[in-house]
Protein: FAD dependent oxidoreductase domain-containing protein
Amino acid sequence: MAMPRANTTIVVVGGGGTMGSSTALHLIRSGYNPANITVLDVYPIPSSQSAGHDLNKIMSIRVRNKPDALLSLEALDMWNNDPLFKPYFHNTGVMYCSSSEQGIEGLRMARQSLIKAKSEMENTNIWLDNEAEIVAKMPAFAQEQVKGWKGVHSLDGGWLAAAKAINGIGEFLRDQRVNFRFGRAGTFARPLLSEDGRTCVGVQTVDGTDYYADKVVLATGAWSPTLVDLEGQCVSKAWVFAHIQLTPEEAAEYKNSPVIYDGEYGFFFEPNEDNIIKVCDEFPGFTRFISHRPFGSNESKSISVPRSHAQHPTDTYPDASEATIRKAIARFLPRFKDRQLLNRSMCWCADTADANLLICEHPRWKNFILATGDSGHSFKLLPNIGKHVVDLIEGTISHDLAYAWKWRPGGDALKSRRAAPAKDLADMPGWKHDRTNRL
Ligand code: FAD
Structure:
């Protein structure tokens, strides 16, 4: 029988990040007592080492499988209509483009899948067949720059003011008087288990504090596989970005432009209120394998362990990324190709083998719920993912979601569904600039 919501105590570990903050929000929206909810994180919400602590993220509809389609459509609806989230959604649209034969074929197929999933999306995902049609949607592009490009202009998306949106949840949680613990008192060390070792009864943080609870949700993103043994189901990987500063006059030309995305180069967003453009490249991610023993494992093993920019602010990204980010800028924003790059950073996510989330009860520890395995595409789910975590806690999650997100060792999370396995940072010079913290 489900526990009464008003009396159930819940600890959300990683509650300063994307899935954790969404879970805390939906617990309250579902009628749980804020006094019984404890949010733990290394950093105050919005946690500066969350993958969501960023200027912007893409909102777009994914239809790779049934859960993807359901979740992204549900998220879009909430970004459009939920008063908490609406202010952070910039419905500029997304322009997917390519000039390679394979890339263009990929665009056609992706558009067909959208239309198959929901026929109305034919009208909101417009095929751009030539340079003139592309420039019409993105006047800041010169016609000769987009020679041979084709594209899809998707009106169903745009960009999300990411860190601000998590902060919006944080303000709500603070108003509701949820319990917060950050720093050493918020940093998960291990689950507390019953005498027979089969039930989780709380967590201990690195300062030695014990937090007892009926349920524990572990939503620690790229750190999850380092904290508890996930049997290889998640591999932590870093992706990179850089910023360029524009003058107000330059920025005005890009105002309200769609997010531009080319899978062979990367993507960029319209400038923010400080005239800053964020540029990302596209590649299979970087790992950082070291010997490490997560809780629940009998021995140390080779695990990719994130190293956050928040804890190592002088870290940047590998020299190879400088080249690929510059290549993306030369492709999209050629007039700024020699401009200084700022805030060059790595940001960490957790890939699963099939790129589906890992949201389930840990099979060894009852009441210990995993909400992780974001696979680099889950910020867009900030408004709604927590609702499904609450459904899981209550045993009402839909069969399709429970099946897609179940505990499923096996498969190749190092490659996941990407073009190639991730390269390791040990083989990628240029990113590490402090002398005290060695790999
Ligand atoms: P996070 O948001 O990273 O949260 C994990 C939390 O756990 C953090 O707050 C961290 O501080 C906390 N934590 C870690 N260790 C501990 C501990 N020991 N104790 C307590 N707390 C701990 N997604 C999109 O939808 N659209 C995009 O355009 C997009 N672009 C991206 C671009 C880049 C460069 C990157 C890196 C990611 C991008 N993503 C995008 C992916 C998206 O950011 C992630 O999928 C999502 O933010 C992951 O959420 P999470 O809750 O799993 O992890």
Remarks:
- The two ends are 48 Å apart (CA to CA).
